[in-house]
Amino acid sequence: MADAAACAGRVTRLRELMEERGYDAVILRNNPDLRWLTGAERVFDDEVAHTAFITADGQWLHTDSRYANTFLERLGSDTAWAIDEQVVQPAAWAAARALETRSRVVAVEDTCDLAFFDAFGEECAHASIACMTPRLHGDICDLRMVKDAEEVKLMRHAQKITDAAFEHICGFIKVGMTEQQIRVELENYMLSHGADALSFGTIIAAGPNGANPHAQPGEYVVKKGDMIVMDYGAGYHDYHSDMTRTVCMGEPSEEQRRVYDIVRQAHEACAAAAKPGCIGADIHNLACKVIADAGYGDYFKHGLGHGVGIEIHENPNFGRRWEREVPEGSVVTIEPGIYLPGNFGVRLEDFGIMTAEGYVPFTESTHDLVCIDC
After folding, report:
1. In sequence order, what are the beta bridge partners of 180?
2. Which superfamily, per CATH, for 4-143?
3. How far is C-alpha 255 from the geometric centre of its chain's CA atoms?
4. What are the tens digits of pLDDT across the range 318-366?
5. Domains of the chain by residue range
6. Whole-Å CA distances, 5 to 1, 41, 158
7. Model-level pTM?
8. How many CA atoms lie within 13 A of 294 on its CB side?
9. Are 265 and 348 in contact (CB under 8 A)?
10. 289 Cβ neighbours under 8 A, 6+ residues apart
């Protein structure tokens, strides 16, 4: 059942934005935004099948028969949402709500496709509705940056499953297994121990494949001396976890140990420096400096971290282009890496929340290099 109080708070935040901007209504069709506002878990899939129309004192949700009953079950009989499954095109339905509520300034989130936006304008013109349609530009994504207690609870739960999966997989991996075999075991463990989805396609990258940050697991056979990069996460009630650990098959070489230690130093320096109000690019640049000062500056080129929530990549982030403040209450990853082409790679990733005291990881798995007995 959706947390009604949490969702009411989210709708209130949207209405405050509407009042500030002078919007009579807002139309939303982006599934992550709708999941956030309604709190209806495990309803939304890959289809753009729902339309919300929100005013200062009303909230309507248009869907179809495939989802309507599930919404009612998830939201409860006393929900503030008016669920409507009438068989009508979404743009025509939204225009009817604009007429019904006498809304003259109706903002549309820019995640809406152009076909819907154009159709809404045509339906308004056909019904002789004088309506301005300003675009929201990522405003809902920005509202979603600051997590409430319900969201934090779900992500902490997802991470507990993810941490347990790491302990399990470290006892499972053997020389002679393929990356794909490890992936199947890791994902199966999460799905059979509380996860109801995967956060994303699991990355298992062994040996030289570890030098490719987003390598896809394949038929590479794990050998003694390989480093294995494992980037994965559990989904729980539509919220995500995200974690990377790098393990070594047997004792690491001197270079492997040195590179791992540099990555760990970069990670922990950034976690200590991350405070609410910091500029995301500054934290990214700190990681770059630690790695460059150690002589590996050419081998770390991706962003340091990203927001996590209903989507696996959200605002804000610790990236070279995020020149904005990272707010208290946001959930962000820290994931520096060093990637040596043709040789091996190392990445160490936690995700956690920005609190008044600083960055607090949800991840509990060790930062020590785990060496698998061969």
Report:
1. none
2. Creatinase/prolidase N-terminal domain (3.40.350.10)
3. 33
4. 999 999 999 999 999 999 999 999 999 999 999 999 999 999 999 999 9
5. 4-143, 149-372
6. 12, 15, 22
7. 0.95
8. 20
9. no
10. none
